[in-house]
Amino acid sequence: MSAYLSISNVGMTFKGANGPFIALREIELEINSGEFVALIGHSGCGKSTLLNIVAGLTRATTGGVLLQGKEVSDPGPDRAVVFQNHSLLPWLTVYDNVKLAVDKVHSKTKNKAERDAWTRHNLALVGMDHALDKRPQEISGGMKQRVGIARALAMEPKVLLLDEPFGALDALTRATLQDTVMELHAKLNNTVIMITHDVDEAVLLSDRVVMMTNGPAATIGEVLNVNLARPRNRLALATDPEYTRCRQQILEFLYARHRAPAVHAA
Amino acid sequence: MAVKTDVLSKADMGGGESILAALAPRVIGGLKHAATRVLPPVMFLALLLTIWEIACSSPGATLPPPSTVLSDTWELIIDPFFDKGGLNKGMFWHLASSLQRVAIGFAIAAAVGIGLGVLIGQSTLAFRGLDPIFQVLRTVPPLAWLPLSLAAFRHADPSAIFVIAITAVWPIILNTAVGIRNIPQDYRNVSRVLRLNGFEFFFKVMLPATVPFMFTGLKIGIGLSWLAIVAAEMLIGGVGIGFFIWDAWNSSLISEIILALIYVGLVGFMLDRLIGFIGNRVGGYSSQ
Prior knowledge:
The structure holds two protein chains of two kinds. Chain A is α/β, with parallel strands linked by helices. Chain A contains nine helices and ten strands. Chain A has helices at 47-55, 94-105, 112-125, 141-154, 171-188, 199-205, 234-237, 241-257, 261-265, and strands at 5-16, 19-31, 36-40, 62-67, 70-71, 81-82, 159-163, 191-196, 208-212, 220-225. In chain A, a hairpin with a 7-residue loop joins strand 9 (208-212) and strand 10. The radius of gyration of chain A is 19 Å and the shape is globular. The model of chain A has no long low-confidence stretch (mean pLDDT 89). Chain B is mainly alpha-helical. Chain B is 81% helix and 0% strand. In chain B, helix 3 (66-78) crosses helix 11 (254-282) and helix 4 (91-122) packs antiparallel against helix 5 (124-137). The termini of chain B are far apart. Chain A binds chain B through residues 55-57, 74-77, 79-81, 83, 85, 87, 89-91, 100-101, 104-105, 135-137, 155, and chain B through 184, 186-187, 189-190, 192-196, 200, 204-205, 208-209, 211, 283, 285-288.
């Protein structure tokens, strides 16, 4: 039986001014239903490009992505994306931003009252039901990301794609959002691919951490299984030997074997 | 008088003191606002009028001082609505017919400008093809179009309206196009993930995202059309504030010219504010 989501032989070459630029090569990855996978690597290693290929926003030059046996050729709500800078529409309220997605995706399956209830339900899931009538510019960065997550969840995606969703947030806000994402994953059992820069975040949230080598021609360097029972608690994990082992292994990959190009130059 | 006592007695019944107490900070706030915002322009206006009065009071002065302007034009000021037939009408009618021409010309410019702006904002081919042409045409001064439009339309009114439209259309086209080109890639990605069709994308994403830019164009456009109408009317004649000025010049009624200039300025200011107000209401959000 084939995997839920399979990325096979994906390569990406951009046509640049100085000839072709190979961003990604030979990416092979299989993800099971309900699995939480983190993609980690230095800036410029093509993590976002890979996520965009899975989302269908970018077409791979070679290889392809199969979701439940069907090839991904264009973007769609079954692969909802939470963008790094939230990308909520500033002229719509919190409620309307999510409602836009609900109305579009569930226009045939839900009636008007059900769509309204579904919008409110998803905002309640991320704890934003108190700010339905606020506009994005009236709420904090963390809240915007919560609304972005609610919008993506409301599409009932087969795979939820998180493009460094907490990158722009302060450490405390990030921690509470990580807890929210863990709770949601436990409750809904979504299949999730998340890009991150943060080693702790990767270990805390995921079942597997996919480590990418540096570009150009980046590929998967190593895949780490995180054998930690769920639900996970960040305080208890701080002294857990498995947590420390995973952390250690990622750090070693990122800073001993695949240091950032800028560090080499310095 | 009766109304006044009525209000007072109501206030007494409902606890007049608390109402007064609640009103007091508002009144003081209003006075403060008046003092900081209204007082400075009033003071400088008085200063300017004084300088003008002194400068033009000598016997050899070529222009009338403000006091003379006021006394010369007093009848025009107090009765703007008279209509003695032909071109002998009150200021209101002159301004109204100028505004009517601007309204029609500007409406045409807005419709065409937004349409073309969307086209060259969305299509790279249309942008490459049309932008150089627009860049050349937009530098043609408004009045230079007038002889051509007179030749084409053979009537004064449509010619003036055409001049208004062609003057106002360029900033509307260019700003709308810039707005569309500035729609963040994220919004486009969101619409692609949601699979919005072209129609939904236009009304739910493109139009709201472009409204602030569009209104910048519309605001510049209305200012330009008001500039152009006065000049165009001087040449085409008929009822209108531009012709009123030209007519006053031919009759050496300098005071009337000055009065008309003040009206032109005030109306232009109000048009600008009106478009700004509508823009704020329609696109009243600040994108970050």
